[in-house]
Amino acid sequence: MKGNQDSMKYLFEPRGIAVIGASQTPGKIGYKVVENIVTGGYREKVYPINPKGGEMLGLSVYKQIADVDGTIDVAVVVVPAELVYGALEECAKKNVKFAIIITSGFAEVGNVAEERRITRFARDNNIRIIGPNVFGVYSAVSSLNATFGPGDVTAGNVAIITQSGAIGIAMIGKTKVEGIGLSAMISVGNKSDVDETDLLEYLTFQDDAKVVLMYLEGIKSGERLVEVLRKATRKKPIVVIKSGRSSRGAQAAASHTGSLAGEDKVFDDIARQCGVIRAEGIQEALNWCKFLADSPMPTGEDCVIITNGGGIGVLTADACEKYNISLSDEVADLKKTFEDVMPSFGSAKNPIDLTGGASPEEYDQALVAALRNENIDAVACLGCQTGSFDADRFAKIAEERYAQYRPVKPIVFSLFGGEEVERSIAKLKEKGIPVFADVYEMTAFLGALYRDYRNKSVPSAEPARVDIDIASIDAAVARARADGRYFLLAQEAQEVMRAAAIAIPQSRIAHSPDEAVRYAEEIGYPVVMKVVSKDIIHKSDAGGVALELVDRKEVLDAYEAIMRNCRNYKADALIEGIQVDEMIQSGVETIVGARQDGAFGPTVMFGLGGVYVEVLKDIAFRAFPLSREATLNMIGQIDSYPLLLGVRGEARKDIDEVANTIIKVGWILCSCDAISDIEINPLAVYDHGEGVKAVDVRILLRESEEA
Ligand code: COA
Predict the structure, then answer these.
(1) Which ligand 1 atom is at minimum distance from the Cα of 20?
(2) Residue list, ligand 1 pocket, CB within 6 Å
């Protein structure tokens, strides 16, 4: 981490900057970049480079970078694509550390070869590339606006990493309108070298960036991103907007785990696992970023809603459920807190309804009472325009109390009404007070704040580990490879399960009636018996199957009957024996899977299994490895979780064994490079203490042998 911090520092705090392709023609990108750097207040030296030489914006233009005397840490490249390689050669001679390549015309239009060529050259010459195909870099710490976007950026404490240039440029303007100050804005473009993970890693430890906002499309090096996100979210809120779907998601669709994945669902679950605060759209993300940086953390989970309108109170309570915010229901405490201000017809149940007639003074009194109560961890104040509602007074109270109690606990506001109300909202917003015109927007922000709080308050746990007999797994895989197969046969898949001590239905092949009885007694009644013969495909049609055999006599009779039936069915059939199987008891049918995800590396899946899995899609994904706590959290995420807790007087199911199975399946995948997908469906889950059983197991291998 330290190495990355040291080297990245020069991108954000260069000791000198060159613009290769600086143009004296206003309107050209090469002019705008120099103009932004100069007018932005960058304090170190700026060197415009252009073979024509001359002067621009009060600066000498150098014919080539080699003519410059001082240190140049960053070069912004704004020459056409075919000249970029030459520009980098010049940079190499001058020991430039970073090239911000604004130029388009590389991989994004299919010119992959040229992009590889410049990237290789840069790597060989210790130049890190930002881009190509970017709008530049803004860094408040050095007052550097090396972009061709708007010239007047407000400095502040939100750092933005964007994969979309256009959205990034637009966000510079939009953040200004919203009153959001930026500590940095970086466009990553084609990410031929530096990517969002490198930047996030740096910004995690940069104090000026209090919040990081990432706009992502496709994920590159997802495994590393997961690792960095997990660390970053413990330090500061990381808000992510993710659009677009990578084609990689469809790759491993051969198994349920693959086809169910849907790139976005995998991303969503993994983002949640990493503590990312995912926004649906840009406006929502900006709403959060604006206030996340300055808001105090809640001190616990108990929130109180104060309202002068029953309706918006109820709407907010609904929103709290959606955004996972718990409302205090300490009725006695609430009654005591608000008794002095509550009219007899008001409600001291949360939401606290002061009713439409509440005066500003009464409202203030209630607000102060809530803020002073140590059992209340966050307060949502709602103002609905009623006959006696004074938006101006409300705004004054909000401002005063916010300033007074801001260091103590989070307060959020929502005002609803006409012009006056809108004016008050604008005024409060300008002062950095979290106020929203809609209770859902307000609650979504409070939800974001709570996610950040929970990320930081949950202790980090070590990944759970298990012992696996890797040699047995390798042997099963080697057999499949020798046969030219990319999947394991059922028996081989069962060997893999045994190698990780995952319970599978017991099964033996008997060659005599006595042997069948012995096996049945070892397995335990009831058992199922089936003929084993390559010559009899449809066993039931041949009378080669007997179910629910409960004792010795039934096993002996079944053995005789199966042999007789099969001989009658096909006299010359070679009968290898009779299989004695455990009769599977029904349990809750779940699905457990693991796969090498194209974007995120090893991932595990858990959900409601059985035949309806594709329809219900009640599944959760996680990047692996996982701690035990995180595995239990994943199990609890599915909607059908109550089935595992036991419904209508049923016993709780063996959730611990489900967690063990997920962890084991994850480690099988991670211990054997050749395996690409594992899927157990169904994994029957029995009552607590009675374990699970992997009824059907499918294992796929990677198509390339080198793996
Ligand atoms: N060193 C320095 N400057 C050089 C040079 C060299 N070796 N060779 C040429 N130049 C100068 C040119 O003379 C010109 O300056 P001038 O205006 O004084 O003549 C300047 O570099 C730019 O070259 P030009 O050929 O005029 O290109 P351009 O300005 O029309 O376009 C780009 C250059 C990079 C802007 C264009 O190729 C491009 O990629 N545009 C898209 C950018 C974009 O949208 N990026 C993604 C944003 S998200």
Answers:
(1) 2
(2) 20-21, 23-25, 28-30, 49-52, 78-80, 83, 86, 102-105, 133-135, 165, 187
